[in-house]
Specification:
- The complex is a heterodimer of chains A (106) and B (121).
- Chain A is mostly beta strands.
- Chain A is 0% helix and 47% strand.
- Chain A has no helices and ten strands.
- In chain A, the strands form two sheets. Chain A has a six-stranded mixed β-sheet, with no helix packed on it.
- The radius of gyration of chain A is 13 Å and the shape is globular.
- In chain B, the strands form two sheets. In chain B, strands 2, 4, 5, 6, 9, 10 and 11 form a seven-stranded mixed β-sheet that branches.
- The chains are: A mainly beta (106), B mainly beta (121).
- At the A-B interface, strand 4 and strand 5 of A face strand 4, strand 5, strand 9 and strand 10 of B.
Chain lengths: 106, 121
């Protein structure tokens, strides 16, 4: 199975800050890496697909890059609604594992 | 607008079978997508359970040790999850989701609101 690790596991930030989240895969997954935002009591929301493509409707303060085994998600000018947990997920091969998440809080 | 909605018992006894239904509206299961189940628990995070396509082809997570059955009904408007021999470790919020797969875009793009299933006697 392909394992994903995320760092940091949590971070504290303030409105207006820029934060960068990292996801690493245990083997090459090319660009088959997605990012989701999860808020308490809500379903996951797809933010980024194919490592670097913003899903329709996602604000441009979100950006992502990466390939092979190293991927990052950056949020510039953090907004109050961005405080959440972010998960990466690989779709290169089954099982379609998720990373353990990075919690972004105040 | 495509919507997914899960339903099923919120409480299942240990060693019993968890059974959930996902109703798909605004789209058809007869499409070039896979229809998935994902669960979210505090202890294990997000976990892909398995999926089915309109042809009835299924794939599931080996970590669940063949306890999973996913099926689709003939109306192609709903699909199902059965997880047998449940334990407390199966307590989680269960989501149904659409996996869209075209080129680099291979992602869970639509989700139901989720349903909490607790395994307890």
């Amino acid at each position: 199975d392909i394992q994903l690790t995320q760092s940091p596991s949590s971070l504290s930030a303030s409105v207006g800050d820029e934060v960068t989240l990292t996801c690493r895969a245990s083997q090459s997954i090319s660009r088959y890496l997605n990012w989701y935002q999860v808020k308490p009591g809500e379903a996951p929301k797809l933010l980024v697909y194919g490592a670097a493509n913003l899903e329709s409707g996602v604000p441009s303060r979100f950006s992502a890059i990466g390939s092979v085994t190293e991927f990052t998600l950056t949020i510039t000018a953090l907004q109050p609604e961005d405080f959440a947990t972010y998960y990466c997920q690989q779709s290169f091969d089954t099982p379609f594992n998720f990373g353990p998440g990075t919690k972004v809080d105040v | 607008q495509v919507q997914l909605q899960e339903s099923g018992p919120g409480l299942v006894k240990p060693s019993g079978t968890l059974s959930l239904t996902c109703v798909v509206s605004g789209d058809s299961i007869v499409s070039n997508n896979w229809w998935s189940w994902v669960r979210h628990s505090p202890g294990k995070g997000l976990e892909w359970i398995g999926e089915i396509n309109y042809s009835g082809n299924t794939r599931d997570n080996p970590s669940l040790k063949s306890r999973v059955t996913i099926s689709v009904d003939k109306s192609m408007t709903r699909f199902y999850l059965k997880l047998n021999s449940v334990t407390a470790a199966d307590t989680a919020v269960y989501y149904c989701s659409r996996r869209f797969s075209v080129g680099w875009n291979d992602s869970f793009d639509l989700w139901g609101r989720g349903t909490l299933v607790t395994v307890s006697s």
